[in-house]
Amino acid sequence: MKALPHLPVSPRLARTLWLLLAVAATGFSAPAHALRIKEVAAVQGVRSNQLSGYGLVVGLDGTGDQSSQMPITAQAMANYLQQMGISLPPGTRAPQLKNVATVVITAQLPAFAQPGQSIDVSVSSIGNARSLKGGTLIAAPLRGADGEIYALAQGNVVVAGAGASSGGSKVQVNHLSAGRIPDGAQVERSVPTPLHDGDTITLGLDASDFQTARKVAQAINARQGNGTAMAIDGRTVRVKAPQDPGARVNFIAELEELPLPDTSPAAKVVINARTGSIVLNQAVTLGPCAIAHGNLSITIASTPVISQPNPLSQGQTVVAQKSDITIKQEPGNIIQMPASPQLADVVKALNSLGATPQDLLAILQAIKAAGALNAELEVI
């Protein structure tokens, strides 16, 4: 048999072929990513704290608060100048500050944050400023729920938007009266975290589920020994931990990486009545039922009617409104919904109705009331 001639292959094509072969050889044997404890639970007491404050943004291009309508802006600026040793003479008219805006500053103080570290802050106008773009926040204290100062904020405000107005016309992209300052606050005081208190730690699950709590305890006991962990309820797991701080940190780090066996979540349908959004998880099933959904539409049309008087009658022209009201009700066909044991079947059955998202809100609630929707219905 005659040998086939050798075909030249470019080096780039050869590398591509070897890459495809490598992906094909390893892609089918790659293990699936298992759920870890750190993705369903967190150590209780390790939490962030909310901070808030009040301040002034200066350097605006004439887009600040109108002082006549926002007297607190002029008062706050006068207080700030007085702290700097500058005071207006008595009887001086309050200045019209067009380049200053009063703002509320919010931030989250992470767990274990230490003095000197930086955190991001959000700045939001509370007056009638048109834009905070290009402004600079003057140093302002951020307080916690106890009234103590935990951080100081200052910096240039970053506003992800743009706008322009002229002659009564206005064009705006995104929001201009709120912005952020990356690393805009410096921590001045730390919050004690009870991580090393006692001989146990408590894991709090993100959602209440007895099955998940039991599996978390079983996974810890299988790794650290029986009796190490115990599920207290559907959301709490108590774990024995070493007393030494370094050993406790290593112990928690190992716990967070422990894999959990697959758990089927509780069937739930979440409905947002304001936006018409509907979300179903994979455990939702549908029993057999029949649905009839009709549409009722009412149309009201107003037509102006002009009544013209006769010549030389000294009457007046009168404009009246003639209203036509039409009510149209489309027939609702009864559609038989088969039993749907999988999420794909549920989606296919709901799509067969041809209803809008707003109609599906009412339909799903009716199916749940009839006992054919095997899921918890949550309206947000």
UniProtKB/TrEMBL annotation:
One of its GO terms (biological process) is bacterial-type flagellum-dependent cell motility. It is found in: Bacterial flagellum basal body. Residues 1-34 form the signal peptide. GO terms for cellular component: bacterial-type flagellum basal body, distal rod, P ring; outer membrane-bounded periplasmic space. Keywords: Bacterial flagellum, Cell projection, Cilium, Flagellum, Signal. Transmembrane segments: none annotated. It holds the Pfam family FlgI. One of its GO terms (molecular function) is structural molecule activity. Its main location: other. HAMAP family: FlgI. The basal body constitutes a major portion of the flagellar organelle and consists of four rings (L,P,S, and M) mounted on a central rod. Belongs to the FlgI family. Assembles around the rod to form the L-ring and probably protects the motor/basal body from shearing forces during rotation. This is Flagellar P-ring protein. It comes from Acidovorax carolinensis.
